């Protein structure tokens, strides 16, 4: 550091600056789709910045939940700021499912919550199973649940080394260019 080379920077000022950084305070949190207690808003200048080691509770609005899946969250003021970062996630609404049923009748699900489903007789998931589950993530469901006829397979065109093209070869799994078609057609 230039200050040290010129003799301007002293140990006492280093300790003062370091102590200030260690006692870093946390500013008023802006929680999208969430609120802290009303008195914090009324006396904002008194409570904030909040000192390291203090805890703060918040509540998510209807239709949202904290990362824990609960309507309420709690954060700690640390050297890095609020930990965990106070955030409210949109709940997942039960998706539509043709040819299958969900194991639960709830209309909405909290983040990280799973929802199991089963396909009706004669139907399966795209992976070829009768049962599967999806998970509510930060941006919505992990996948759209699907139940398709067991007889559905993929028809694809396959190109061989010699350059010959064989259309309409039935395969159970193919990563190339394919389209879905009922086997009976």
From TrEMBL:
<protein>
    <recommendedName>
        <fullName>Sushi domain-containing protein</fullName>
    </recommendedName>
</protein>
<keyword id="KW-1015">Disulfide bond</keyword>
<dbReference type="InterPro" id="IPR035976">
    <property type="entry name" value="Sushi/SCR/CCP_sf"/>
</dbReference>
<feature type="domain" description="Sushi">
    <location>
        <begin position="90"/>
        <end position="149"/>
    </location>
</feature>
<keyword id="KW-0768">Sushi</keyword>
<dbReference type="InterPro" id="IPR000436">
    <property type="entry name" value="Sushi_SCR_CCP_dom"/>
</dbReference>
<dbReference type="Pfam" id="PF00084">
    <property type="entry name" value="Sushi"/>
</dbReference>
<dbReference type="InterPro" id="IPR051503">
    <property type="entry name" value="ComplSys_Reg/VirEntry_Med"/>
</dbReference>
<dbReference type="GO" id="GO:0007596">
    <property type="term" value="P:blood coagulation"/>
</dbReference>
<keyword id="KW-0732">Signal</keyword>
């Amino acid at each position: 550091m230039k200050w040290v080379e010129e003799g301007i920077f002293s140990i006492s000022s280093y300790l003062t600056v370091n102590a200030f950084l260690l006692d870093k305070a946390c500013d008023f949190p802006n929680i999208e789709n969430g609120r802290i207690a009303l008195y914090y808003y009324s006396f904002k200048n008194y409570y904030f910045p909040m000192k390291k080691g203090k805890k703060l509770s918040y509540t998510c609005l209807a239709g949202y939940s904290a990362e824990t899946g609960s309507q309420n969250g709690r954060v700690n003021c640390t050297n890095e700021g609020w930990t965990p970062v106070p955030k409210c996630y949109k709940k997942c609404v039960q998706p539509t499912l043709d040819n299958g049923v969900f194991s639960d009748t709830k209309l909405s699900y909290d983040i990280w919550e799973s929802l199991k489903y089963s396909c009706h007789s004669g139907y399966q998931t795209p992976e070829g199973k009768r049962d599967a589950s999806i998970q509510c993530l930060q941006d919505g469901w992990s996948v759209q649940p699907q139940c398709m006829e067991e007889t559905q397979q993929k028809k694809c065109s396959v190109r061989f080394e010699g350059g010959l093209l064989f259309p309409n070869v039935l395969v159970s799994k193919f990563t190339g260019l394919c389209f879905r078609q009922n086997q009976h057609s």
